[in-house]
Amino acid sequence: MLSLSKIQEPVKEDMKRFDALFKDSMKSNVYLLDTVTRYIIKRKGKQVRPLFVYLSAGTVGNINVTTDRAATLIELLHTATLVHDDVVDDSNERRGFFSINALWKNKIAVLVGDFLLARGLLLSVDNKDHELLKTTSEAVRLMSEGELLQIEKARRLDITEEVYFEIIQRKTASLIASCCACGAISANANEEDINTMKLFGEYVGIAFQIKDDLFDYQNSALIGKPTGIDIKEQKMTLPLINALSKADSGVKSKVISTVKNNNNDPKKVEEVLEFVRQSGGLKYAEEKMHEYKNNALKLLEKYPDSIYKKSLIDLVNFSIERSY
């Protein structure tokens, strides 16, 4: 399997420019704020989303300074949503480190998230990147709606497969779709190519989320993190939804009761995980994941071969084959 550093190779210099712009865009004259943003920068993730922006731009056109701003805008908004998510989820960890709210409490975390959001908006407004701003703002709206829809449905545990896909299309796929659309916009692509890249990103985002959902049913020792988290949080994901759709009413009632009332009992949670494993729910979810991945790759066939297109295909495969 290709490493992320190998996939980044065609845009290595572009990612360096992005890094500098991202750091610069976080600066302020408030010492507390600078302390928190420095902590964020030091513990940055894989930066897959800016990579989608650059590779999409290179696939349909030419990378330029607008692409740098598009990648920075996306990462600022993404980071803001992560900071806010940790507050919403009352999570004390992010990527193996203490979260912002764990170190500086919720009030500061919310304000830092607001600051990052504002910096992203101003970066676009100051440079008259109105199309980028419109595309990313739409993604933030969809992400918020997706989270709220999931909360609403979790109360009754009545999520159907159709509703599940609606949730992840908004909650996860909308941001990846925005990355790819913004890459195309920055490269001055026509409307058809912008829409193609947006749909490509949506398919990839859905496959990416299904992969995340599948991790919850694997051996925790193999992936290096706890499993059964979705069950504990009463999140109905595709493997469980499919397993329940094939179960008789008695088994279905028992499993839903466990998810609702015994989700903090490790033994009961393991019973639910085993029920899904035995039912074929994992196989079904994997098939759906590959279906969306293949639909995404099919959309790229219209573009000429290039180092950017090759890396974009590799990035899609990396997102699906990853073990973490």
**Radius of gyration, Cα only, in angstroms?**
20 Å
The CATH homologous superfamily is named Farnesyl Diphosphate Synthase
Q: Biggest sheet, open or closed, and with what strands and sense? A: 2 strands, antiparallel
> Low-confidence parts, pLDDT < 50 over ≥5 residues?
221-225
What class do helices, strands and sheet pairing give? mainly alpha
Number of helices: 16
Tell me the span between the first and last alpha carbons. Answer: 13 Å
Estimate what percentage of residues fall within beta strands.
under 5%
Query: Helicity, in percent?
Result: over 70%
* CATH architectural type: Orthogonal Bundle
Q: What is the strand tally?
A: 2
Helix and strand element order: HHHHHEEHHHHHHHHHHH
Domains, number: 1
Give the oligomeric state: single chain
What is the residue-mean pLDDT, rounded to a whole number?
A: 87
Q: What's the CATH topology name?
A: Farnesyl Diphosphate Synthase
Could you characterize the architecture of this molecule?
This protein has 324 residues and is mainly alpha-helical. It has a single domain (4-321), classed as Orthogonal Bundle (Farnesyl Diphosphate Synthase). It has 16 helices and 2 strands. Strands 1-2 form a two-stranded antiparallel sheet. A hairpin with a 2-residue loop joins strand 1 (93-94) and strand 2 (97-98). The radius of gyration is 20 Å and the shape is globular.
